[in-house]
Amino acid sequence: MKKIQKSKKGFTLVEMVLVIAIIVILAAVLVLGIGTYLQRARAASSSIAAHNSSISAVRAEIDRELS
């Protein structure tokens, strides 16, 4: 008798669902991480803007005193 071998050429539904679930979890972690970095960048940007405006105010005061 000949043995019939099954050739496995594709993925099962369970394997596909598992891969999709892993991709969704990784995407969620990435989105949350990017959100945190964006918040930090916005805070740093506003801090730098406040610092620059205070420097320009001090320079304007010095220029008025020297004139």
Order of helices and strands: H
Task: Give average pLDDT, whole number.
Answer: 89
Individual helix count:
1
Rounded to an integer in angstroms, the radius of gyration calculated over CA atoms is 30 Å
Helix content: over 70%
- Could you give the count of β-strands? 0
Shape call: rod-shaped
Q: Helix/strand/pairing class, anyone?
A: mainly alpha
What does the main sheet amount to? Answer: none
Distance between the termini: 108 Å
Uncertain residue ranges: none
Strand content: under 5%
Give the structure's gist in a few sentences:
This protein has one helix at residues 13-66. The longest helix is centred in the middle third of the chain and has 54 residues, at 13-66.
Give an account of the 3D structure.
By secondary structure, this protein is mostly helical. The protein has a domain at 27-67. 81% of the residues lie in helices and 0% in strands. It contains one helix and no strands. It has one helix at 13-66. The mean pLDDT is 89.
How is the topology of this model organized?
Elements: H1 13-66
Features:
1 helix, rod-shaped, mainly alpha, 67 residues, 81% helix
